Amino acid sequence: MSAPAFRVDGVLAAREAFYAVACDPARSCVVEACAGSGKTWMLVSRMLRALLDGAEPHEILAITFTRAAAGEMRERLHDWLAAYSTARASHGQRVEALVQRGIAPARAESLAPALGTLYGRVLAAGRPIEIRTFHAWFSQLLRVAPLALLDRLGLAPELELIEDLEDHRPAVMRAFHARVLRDPGLRAVRAA
């Protein structure tokens, strides 16, 4: 088994240098990696660092493909914030967690107390970090879109997100058959 090949802008980089770039919320980055390689860890680390840099929870939006991935990100963020806020988490543990997420040791020393109070700040903010699937995010956009825009696009204001087509197949088939039976042209095609 070979060692992981971390690259920054196409150039081989040490693990620490890679995480300093990839976990920095002030930088745009694309991370390509196989399943189980730590992409979720990195995304949640970026959220944690953005919060430490002063972002409000409602200013952060994370979009993923599956509900399971969104749930995993929410759970990991909650678990980390809760763990670092307890009296059992030492200053040294907080510093180490920040260094693992690409923060220089001296800065990690100064940010460690803020990490200890971050959970309370996030809870007190009232509006959470948005972690959604693409489908749920788009559905949310449609729910708050102006009615005139929906009308112009030919979309009904009471759209419903369909996660599993099989749950709706009977209703769709009933509507399809009813339409065929009402239209003489479609009935003729069906009979042929």
Task: Quickly list its features.
192 residues, mainly alpha, two-stranded antiparallel ribbon, 58% helix
Describe the model.
The chain has 192 residues and is mainly alpha-helical. The chain folds into two domains: 7-136, no CATH class; 162-192, no CATH class. Helices cover 58% and strands 6% of the residues. It contains nine helices and four strands; from the N terminus they run ββααβαααβαααα. It has helices spanning 15-22, 39-52, 67-85, 91-100, 105-125, 134-144, 147-153, 169-182, 184-191; strands at 7-8, 11-12, 61-64, 130-133. It has a two-stranded antiparallel ribbon. Strands 3-4 form a two-stranded parallel sheet. β1 and β2 (11-12) form a beta hairpin. α2 crosses α3 (67-85) and α4 crosses α5. The longest helix is centred in the middle third of the chain and has 21 residues, at 105-125. The radius of gyration is 24 Å and the shape is elongated. The mean pLDDT is 88.
